[in-house]
Amino acid sequence: HDLWRWLYSFLCMMGCVRSCEVIIEDIITRMQDDKTGGVPIRTVKSFLSKIPSVVTGADIVQWLMKNLSIEDQGEAIHLGSLIAAQGYVFPISDHVLTLKDDGTFYRFQAPYFWPSNCWEPENTDYAIYLCKRTMQNKARLELADYEAENLARLQRAFARKWEFIFMQAEAQVKIDRKKDKTERKILDSQERAFWDVHRPVPGCVNTTEMDIRKCRRMKNPQKVKKVSVSFWICFIFFNITFLNLQIDRHCLKMSKVAESLIAYTEQYVEYDPFITPAEPSNPWISDDAALWDIEMSKEPSQQRVKRWGFSMDEVLKDPVGRDQFLRFLESEFSSENLRFWLAVQDLKKQPLQDVTTRVEEIWQEFLAPGAQSAINLDSHSYEKTSQNVKDPGRYTYEDAQEHIYKLMKSDSYARFLRSNAYQDLLLAKKKVSVGKDMLASICTS
Q1: Is 87 left (phi over 0), alpha (psi -120 to 50) or beta?
Q2: 399 lies in some domain
Q3: In this structure, are 314 and 418 located in the same domain?
Q4: Where is the DEP domain (predicted)?
């Protein structure tokens, strides 16, 4: 059981959601199998009604201890709570998805609602569910306060298609009314438990918010910083050797991820001092600062010029590269794009008392009607920037800057790499580098 717990924690940490699901679902299937000594599922008589298909928390804990060889009762409760947090078992009396070692009644979730079905519900699905609840038996399925607030918010958000949502809810209610009362009661509780996982009660932990499938579909994912190439080599080796899996049918294969990391590694290998010794020497481990002097020089080395071809970011962050790119744009009479981009970058570093003045200067130079260096913006970016100028700040031109960046990257940057200016500079530095190598070899001989 220690190995199982370690494996579960490890897979969760690595984001291997599908592997965790397979393990949990195998346990749940065995729990419900009467032939192999599963947890006893029974119907319990209440005051004036019957509670069908329930098990107690104590029964689940005892089964886990017996069948998974768990000696510590607290360990079994912890494991059961991990399973309950994913919605595979749920209490019928409240919305708190934890396991208690007592007579609290629990019910197993239907396989249709298991996470392995990869059904990620939308807000429209939630709206239909809440709307359907308002049409059913109010004494039994009355909305909680937070659900009523969610319903009101969704009704405002989907005002234009609320009639369609209401019709779908009505159709589902009609189908449900044709089912047996006991079956309908069980299905209602299972559907409620499904939404307790995906739209939890305020204050409860949302176990789905760190799902790797959702992280990939975020509109503005946080950019991952590029770290040392040696780190990527270790990372690739670990993943290929020990995991070698396909994350999910919605995600990229691990092989594709590894290919992109290997390509990045091969491209930047000569720029990582951990792998390729720096020339003439590494100033971090010696007293020779010649490398820093070379990097600050206005005469770029062949290695620096070659790096400009990796991406436009490499050109823009190198002062000499920016100058060369600006000269090229001036020759094409489109230097206003880069000058605007640089002006916006400078605006972000200005003291707060100078921001308003600088925003106005940039507007008059690049965006105002009849501006001396007018830039080409689409209507959406121009309208949004015009609104931002009314309340100036350091990020007033963020949308316009992004549009100009994409314009330069897709058009001007590609032509710059093909231009004679860049090619001549690259070849000239290459010849110098080769000449120095030949001279060194002659002197050595």
Answers
A1: left
A2: yes
A3: yes
A4: 35-110
Nearest CA to 88 among 129, 39, 42, 137? 39
CB proximity list for 240: less than 8 A, separation 6 or greater: 254, 258
CA-angle at 292, arms to 290 and 298, nearest 5°: 100
Q: Which two tokens stand for residue 219?
A: 């509109």
- Domain range for 165: 123-178
Query: What letter would DSSP give residue 143?
Result: P
Q: Give the span between the Cα atoms of 94 and 78, in whole angstroms.
A: 19
Closest CA to 154 of 193, 183, 122, 179: 122
HSE (side-chain half, CA atoms, 13 Å) at 381: 16
Rg of the chain on CA atoms, in Å: 32
Q: What's the pLDDT tens digit per position in 7-66?
A: 555 555 454 555 567 788 888 999 998 888 889 898 988 777 888 999 999 999 999 999
Cα gap 399→405, rounded to integer Å: 10
Residue 213 lies in a domain: no
Distance CA 2, CA 76 (A): 11
Q: Which residues pair with 91 in a beta bridge?
A: 106
Q: Are 373 and 339 in contact (CB under 8 A)?
A: yes
Which pair of structure tokens corresponds to residue 396? Answer: 């007033």
How far is Cα 64 from Cα 71, in angstroms, rounded to an integer? 10
